[in-house]
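We emphasize that the prediction below concerns an isolated chain of 77 residues; any contacts that depend on oligomerization or on bound cofactors are therefore not represented. The input was used exactly as deposited, without trimming of termini.
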Amino acid sequence: MHPQLSDKKLVCKDFIQALEDCHLSPWARLTGGCNKYKDAMNVCLHGESVARSARNRASAKERQAKREEATKAFFED
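Result of the prediction step, given as a token string:
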């Protein structure tokens, strides 16, 4: 299972629940009957990961700009 599911329960909740429901049937789980649910969950998790990376990148750029501005102001004095 994916270790990052603990914080994704709100975003990909429907996909996670569908996979967990499918895994209740041992036959479906062992014969690949749950693969479509797992693929859908992986797509959802990947989309969330890409969105989180974009937010982190934007935040890092803002912090870097603030830091450069503070450094510039410090050395101008």
